């Protein structure tokens, strides 16, 4: 008899992997709400640039201090297990190629969007939908991974949820700057919906440890690029002190737990 397990193969199986499905569902909905309302938070306030810089620093701290070690630990387990010979990983360092791939993927999207905004194509049709498609996949992945963490427990879910919520403040600001009213009227709702869709898929499936590490690694690369993209190009709009405070503050929280 046909089954979803057979159709999806050994990488994906039917099931529920979140330590607390109720908490995971609540975090997914909260992330969608944050994304849809991010543009209204501190709108017009002199504190908004500081908040965005601190949010970017916190999400970067999550990747470097918490997520990358988590990924490396999972890959080491796969490499050292019997499944290692049949997996993508021959050595634990190979997962960082996926981190780099995530970084380069979103860099390519950014370059395309920047060039077409200069007048090569119609921004509202080509650039907008290219940006929306890439961030739709990105947001769906974030929603999916709410239900699939390498570390079990409510604490891991909350740390992830807080980091991604802060990260959405940063990505929303960049998309809003690129696409203005078009993004406000349509884009933010579609991207919030992508988070919920990813979460829905996450409730129906689980992934094996190796493929989960790949997904987390790709996400890590995307986060690193999107944070640096917002902070580095224009020192006048970024706030270095706030960025450092967000980075150090959230890193301290992660290390204390």
From TrEMBL:
This protein's UniProt keywords: Membrane, Transmembrane, Transmembrane helix
Recorded superkingdom: Archaea
Regions crossing the membrane: 20-39, 51-68, 95-114, 126-147, 153-174, 210-228, 240-256
Name of the protein in its database record: ZIP Zinc transporter
Organism: Halomarina salina
């Amino acid at each position: 008899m046909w089954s979803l397990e057979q159709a999806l193969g050994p990488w994906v199986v039917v099931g529920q992997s979140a330590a607390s499905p109720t908490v995971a569902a609540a975090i997914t909905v909260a992330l969608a709400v944050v994304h849809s309302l991010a543009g209204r938070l501190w709108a017009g306030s002199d504190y908004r640039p500081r908040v965005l810089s601190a949010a970017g620093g916190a999400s970067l701290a999550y990747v470097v201090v918490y997520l990358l070690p988590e990924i490396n630990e999972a890959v080491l387990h796969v490499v050292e297990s019997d499944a290692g010979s049949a997996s993508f990983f021959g050595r634990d360092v190979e997962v960082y190629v996926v981190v780099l791939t995530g970084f380069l993927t979103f860099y390519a999207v950014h370059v395309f969007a920047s060039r077409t905004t200069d007048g090569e194509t119609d921004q509202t049709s080509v650039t907008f939908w290219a940006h929306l498609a890439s961030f739709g996949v990105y947001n769906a992945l974030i929603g999916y991974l709410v239900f699939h963490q390498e570390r079990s427990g409510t604490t891991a879910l909350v740390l992830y949820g807080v980091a991604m919520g802060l990260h959405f403040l940063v990505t929303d600001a960049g998309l809003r700057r690129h696409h203005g009213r078009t993004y406000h009227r349509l884009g933010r709702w579609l991207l919030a919906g992508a988070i919920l869709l990813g979460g829905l898929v996450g409730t129906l499936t689980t992934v094996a440890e190796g493929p989960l590490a790949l997904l987390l690694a790709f996400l890590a690369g995307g986060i690193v690029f999107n944070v640096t993209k917002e902070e580095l190009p224009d020192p006048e709009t970024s706030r270095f002190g706030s960025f450092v405070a967000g980075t150090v503050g959230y890193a301290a929280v992660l290390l204390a737990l």
